C-alpha cells in the first residue's frame, strides 16, 4: 500500500465494476498539485472519454469500459489547447486534446486488459516507455490479488542526467527509458536480447525498479509487476481519497 502522504501527489486510476453489469468503472483522479490532461488509448474496444480531457488538481472523472476492453491511460503535462482542442503538451503529447493514438514517450502508463464476467482483469503501471508523473492504480473491491500497482516515487528527481527531458522552465519534466535514449538491444530487449531469458535487468532498469517496485521497469521485468483482480465490486476495500 502506498502511504497516504504519497497519494496527494499522484495521478490515480481507480477501477470498480458492478457484479450485475459487466462494465468496469474507471475513476481518474488528479492528486497532483497541477493540472494534468489524461489521454486514453484503446487496444481493443472503443475509445473512452473522447481520447482525452483536462483534469484540474483534486478533480476526478469517471467513465466506464465494457468487458473485453483493453487499453491504456496516461497523464499529459504542460498542455496548451485552444477552444477547439488544438495544441500540444510538454509530456505525453498526442497531437491535440482528444487523442487518436498514444502519447509521445517518455510517459508513465496505466495498462488494462478487462475480461469481466467473473474473469480476471489484468492491470499494471509501466515505465517501459519512460516516466513523466507518479501514477497509481487502486482496484476497489474484488477478489484475488487486487493490489495497488504504481509508481509513487518522483523519478524525475532520481533520473540519471543522460535520461532527463527538460521542460520550457528548464526543469526535469520526464525521464526517458534507456531504450529510447540509447537504442541498444540490451536496453530494448531486441536482437540477441529478445527473450525474457536473454534480457536481464540493466543498471538503468534497476534505478526504475528500485524507485518503483510495483511498476514495470523494462520489457521483460518479472511478473511482480502485473496484477489481477476478479469481480471487482463496489467500494468494499474502503478506498478513500
Ligand atoms: C550503465 O552502464 C553503462 C555501460 O557500462 C555505462 O556507460 C553507464 O554510465 C551506466 N549508467 C548508470 C546510471 O549506471
UniProtKB/TrEMBL annotation:
InterPro entries: Osmotin/thaumatin-like_sf, Thaumatin, Thaumatin_CS
Superkingdom classification of source: Eukaryota
Name recorded for this polypeptide: Pathogenesis-related protein 5
Signal peptide: 1-22
UniProt keyword annotations, A-Z: Disulfide bond, Signal
Native source organism of the sequence: Cardamine amara subsp. amara
Disulfide bond annotation, renumbered to this chain: 79-89, 94-99, 146-229, 151-212, 159-175, 179-188, 189-199
Coiled-coil positions: none
Amino acid at each position: 500500500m502506498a502511504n497516504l502522504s504519497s497519494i496527494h501527489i499522484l495521478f490515480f486510476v481507480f477501477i470498480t465494476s458492478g457484479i450485475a453489469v459487466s462494465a468496469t468503472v474507471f475513476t481518474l483522479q488528479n492528486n497532483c498539485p497541477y493540472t494534468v490532461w489524461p489521454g486514453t488509448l484503446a487496444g481493443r474496444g472503443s475509445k473512452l472519454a473522447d481520447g482525452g480531457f483536462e483534469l484540474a488538481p483534486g478533480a476526478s472523472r469517471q467513465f466506464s469500459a465494457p468487458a473485453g476492453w483493453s487499453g491504456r491511460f496516461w497523464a499529459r503535462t504542460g498542455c496548451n489547447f485552444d477552444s477547439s482542442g488544438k495544441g500540444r503538451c510538454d509530456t505525453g503529447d498526442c497531437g491535440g486534446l482528444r487523442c487518436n493514438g498514444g502519447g509521445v514517450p517518455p510517459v508513465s502508463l496505466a495498462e488494462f486488459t478487462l475480461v469481466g464476467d467473473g474473469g480476471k482483469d489484468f492491470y499494471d503501471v509501466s515505465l517501459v516507455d519512460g516516466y513523466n508523473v507518479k501514477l497509481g492504480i487502486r482496484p476497489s473491491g474484488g477478489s484475488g490479488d487486487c493490489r495497488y500497482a504504481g509508481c509513487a516515487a518522483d523519478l524525475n528527481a532520481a533520473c540519471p542526467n543522460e535520461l532527463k527531458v527538460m521542460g520550457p522552465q528548464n526543469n526535469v519534466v520526464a525521464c526517458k527509458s534507456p531504450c529510447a535514449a540509447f537504442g541498444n538491444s540490451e536496453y530494448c530487449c531486441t536482437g540477441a536480447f529478445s527473450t525474457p531469458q536473454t534480457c536481464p535487468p540493466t543498471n538503468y532498469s534497476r534505478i526504475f525498479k528500485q524507485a518503483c517496485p510495483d511498476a514495470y521497469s523494462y520489457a521483460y521485468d518479472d511478473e511482480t509487476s502485473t496484477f489481477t483482480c476478479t469481480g471487482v465490486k463496489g467500494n468494499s476495500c474502503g478506498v478513500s481519497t
